[in-house]
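Batch manifest, entry 17 of 40.
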Amino acid sequence: MAMLHVEVNAKDVLQKLAQVEQLGKNFSDPLQQSGLYMLRSTDKVFRQQYGPNGEIWPNLKPATLKARAKGWNKSGGPGMMLLDTGRLRNSLSPRQNSEGIFRLETHSVEVGTNLKYANIHQFGGVTIHRAAGRTITLRRTKKNQVRFTSPNSKKYKKTYTKNVEWAEYRVRIPARPYLGITPANQKMVNQIFGIWMNKNLNENKAR
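Output type: structure tokens
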């Protein structure tokens, strides 16, 4: 699960919001607007291919690019990161479902994704994969233990090929943060609340 929690932090806005709340108003409208705005901002991150604060994402490995070029048929091109299938990007939507998070509470809104692999792309880490029914090149380290090595490896001279029912291997995934709240985002959220707040206060005065 990867998620954003949007909140208002401007003191002058918070003080006036307390006044609006005393009028019996709830914050669902500005919270929903803020959540939708953050979803649009996050979608822009996928299109621009760098993090919310301008962090450059690590490039895809040559092997990944080669695999993409063979069967890739999505929009944007095979070199686009985090857009292999588009599932992660599309899960970040205003629909609360098994994949997407759009949780509107009394005083907060949360947007994000429930996809299992969302965190590994946001924060980076190591994934463990299992290969089944393959012929692989192995090198022996300790008794009854094997490790993967490249067939062209110069570091390990003793390698052998073996048919296995399955084998586990690790893949390191670099962090490519796509969720985040920038100072510009926070300013816009404050503006959304400020406009809504002033409208309600002015309407109350006019009565």
